[in-house]
Structures are given as structure tokens and as C-alpha cells.
Amino acid sequence: MEKRYHHGDLRAALIEVGLRLLAERDVEGVSLREMAREVGVSATSVYRHFPDKAALMRALAREGLDRLAVAQQEAVSGKEGAASFAATGRAYVRFALANPAIFRLIFTSSAQLQATGEIEALRMLRANAAAASSGDAGPEQAENGALRAWSLVHGLAMLMLDGQLPADDRLIDKLIQG
């Protein structure tokens, strides 16, 4: 018998199941049918909330970005300036290592998410770059600093995820100093 959910409850249940499945396997290994089965509804019920798998994957990416932003916010607690900025970078890499499929999904969906203004992690990066830069840095210099830092942490995360560098906390701390 199919479970009954309120609209938002089923959507939230599907997202939670999707995130759990992404913790166990890559995006290609996640199916709408399996997710429906896990939450106790028919596969057609999923389509009332997500028109296709791509829409569900975008929702999972948005949730992943929200969780990345929370991890970064928690990392900066009690820190200021360069120390805060470095803490967000270290949290970024550690989030990627702890959530590889979600992290990869975020950045295969990021152009669509950025177009809709949903990248809190990127806003946070820019704000921290501006706060960490010297007082005489202009907006262009702060933006360049943010992009340089993002390139470092994203590149480091990808190199570690792809096995090109060891996933080592000491290396993360050494390369991302504040």
C-alpha cells in the first residue's frame, strides 16, 4: 500500500533518500524508481514533484550546496579575517571528501543553480574574500582573490577525490592557511 504524504513531506523524503543514496554510490546509480520504493510511493508519484531525474538531481544539488554552506559557516565560528577565510576553504575540501557524489553533482549542476542565484557557498566565499583582503582592496581585487581561493580549494578537492593527491587533513591544513 502506498504511503500518503503531504506535498512538501514527500518532496523532503525523496531528497533525503536521494542524498543517502548519493552517499553510497554515484549519480548514475540513483534511480527515481528506487527512491519511490524506499519512501513507499509509486514511481508515478515522484513525477508530481519532479518532472524528471534532472529536476530531482538539481534539488539534490541545491540541498548539497545548503549543507556545504552550513559546514563552512560552522567552520568560521569564532574566527575572523584570514583565519575565517581559510576555515571556509578547509571546510569546502573536507565536505567534498566526505560527500564525493553530492560534491560532483553540485558542480555539474552549478551553472543552472548559479543562474537562479542559489549558490550560498559562492556568496559566502566572496564575502569572506572581501573581509580577508586588505582594507584598500577594491571590488575587482576582492573578486580575483575569491576566484583564486575557489580555484585552490576546488582543485585540491578534485585532485584528492580523483586520487591524484592523498586525502590527508595535514595536507589540507598546510595548503589552506589563514
Can you give a write-up of this model?
This protein has 178 residues and is an all-alpha fold. 73% of the residues lie in helices and 0% in strands. The protein is built from nine helices and no strands. It has helices at 7-24, 32-39, 43-46, 53-75, 81-98, 100-115, 120-132, 139-161, 169-175. Helix 1 crosses helix 2 (32-39), helix 5 (81-98) runs antiparallel to helix 7 and helix 7 packs across helix 8 (139-161). It is elongated and about 60 Å long. The chain starts with 6 loop residues before the first helix and ends with a helix. The mean pLDDT is 84.
SSE-based structural type: mainly alpha
Could you tell me the number of beta strands? 0
**What is the percentage of strand-forming residues?**
under 5%
Instruction: Give the mean pLDDT.
Output: 84
Q: How far apart are the first and last residues' alpha carbons, in Å?
A: 55 Å
Count of alpha and pi helical runs: 9
Query: Which stretches are poorly predicted, pLDDT < 50 over at least 5 residues?
Result: none
Our Rg estimate from Cα atoms comes to: 18 Å
Residues in helix, %: over 70%
State the order of secondary-structure elements, H for helix, E for strand: HHHHHHHHH
Give a quick account of the main beta sheet: strands, pairing sense, barrel closure: none
- Based on CA inertia axes, which overall geometry fits? elongated
